[in-house]
Amino acid sequence: MHSLEIKNLNVSIEDQPILKDFNLTIPKGEVHALMGPNGTGKSTLAKVIAGHEDYEVTSGSIELDGQSILGNEPDEISQAGLFLAFQYPLEIPGVSIANFIRAAKQSRLEEGNTLDAVAYYKELYEKMDALKIDRKFTSRSLNEGFSGGEKKRCEVLQMSMLEPKYCIMDETDSGLDIDALKIVSEGVNLMRGPDRGFLIITHYQRLLDYIIPDVVHVMFDGRIVHSGNAQLAHELEAKGYDWVKETFASPTVQ
Ligand code: ADP
Ligand code: MG
């Protein structure tokens, strides 16, 4: 019950099947890594879970703690406790980080309740300090003119402020230097706990030196073809994705 559960999910884009009978369960309290070559459907999976409308779900189910979220609006899914950190964070000119997060937190309160501004800023500044984000960022427009590393740090800030039950991070490590990678990883590690599940999507093993996953899945051609423990990420790094293609794309396996 306390899990993010994806069953037999089939997803197409423009009549092209992308996810093929995809299955994955992330119990609360666990960190799962999803690795795989480019173009295998990792970002598609993340976006479909978050309610992105471009994708056609032809069958299957997505449940968050036993409740179906398939077909819900992205905003409803977010309010239900899912956070998606995008591979390419959006820029929102004219909306400051502080106001963006404040509005998101306000929308999670019951009708008639108002977010306490003093407590909000106290929490915001504490979390910014922990993530080594300069306070001048609070008044800047969301992601506008931010470097890759600054965008990713701000995403982790949003994630930690919204306290989601499940977090999906889509290639949060791409474009990060080692210092930014460490800060983002520390943020995730601080948020790890029995009440939260993570899906860390990454092409490279590097991030998993800092965020040690409980389970590693290898995705190929729209489905998970192999799962293992953290050691599997090292094995993949050593053997390369050609090994995955050769081992799992043969006609006998399909
Ligand atoms: P990954 O994140 O594993 O690299 P993606 O989910 O981004 O893979 O893409 C999977 C496949 O779906 C690719 O062949 C990609 O070209 C295709 N695809 C993804 N999004 C779209 C889209 N909006 N329109 C058309 N094709 C898409
Ligand atoms: Mg991707």
Compile the SSE list and pairings:
Layout: E1 3-13, E2 16-27, E3 31-35, H1 42-49, E4 56-64, E5 67-68, H2 74-79, E6 82-85, E7 92-96, H3 97-107, H4 117-130, E8 141-142, H5 148-162, E9 166-170, H6 178-191, E10 197-202, E11 215-220, E12 223-228, H7 231-239, H8 241-248
Helix pairs in contact: 3-5, 5-6
Residues 13-14, 18, 36, 38-44, 54 line the site of adenosine-5'-diphosphate (ADP).
Question: Fraction of residues in helices?
Answer: 25-40%
Name of the CATH first level: Alpha Beta
Main beta sheet: strand number and arrangement?
A: 6 strands, mixed
Named at the architecture level, the CATH assignment is 3-Layer(aba) Sandwich
The whole-number mean of residue pLDDT values reads 90
CATH topology: the name is: Rossmann fold
**What amount of the residues lies in strands?**
25-35%
Low-pLDDT residue intervals, each spanning 5 or more residues = none
| Superfamily (CATH H level) name | P-loop containing nucleotide triphosphate hydrolases
- Kindly report the spatial arrangement of strands forming the biggest sheet: 6-9-10-3-11-12
Q: Could you tell me the number of beta strands?
A: 12
Element-by-element helix/strand order: EEEHEEHEEHHEHEHEEEHH
Label the overall shape: globular
- How many helices? 8
State the secondary-structure class: alpha/beta
Rounded radius of gyration (Å): 18 Å
Cofactors, ions and other ligands in the entry: adenosine-5'-diphosphate, magnesium ion
The separation of the N and C termini measures 31 Å
Q: What's the number of domains?
A: 1
